[in-house]
Design brief:
Elements (H helix, E strand, L loop, with lengths): L2 E4 L3 E4 L4 E5 L10 H10 L7 E7 L7 E7 L4 E3 L4
Antiparallel strand pairs: 1-2, 3-4, 4-5, 5-6
The structure holds zinc ion.
The site of zinc ion has 7 residues, from loops.
Length: 81
Amino acid sequence: MLWIECPNCGSRPFEEFRYGSVFPVTPDAITDLDARNVDYAWMQDNIQGVTLERWFHESGCRRWFTTKRDTTTDQFLPLDD
Ligand SMILES: [Zn+2]
């Protein structure tokens, strides 16, 4: 079973969480607000490897948090690694 470490509740089963998105990074180079918003909402990199992601603990504390996950193994990693 896959477990996720919630910063508020500790280690909990994967089924309690909802995936949010890759942690949003707004590019500085794009100054057109419409283009930047389209990139923000729709242009995901689908990274193979370690990513920063937003998760929601839906069946627990009902808070959003940021975590690291290796998309090739689905292993969650500490943020300070
Ligand atoms: Zn929680």
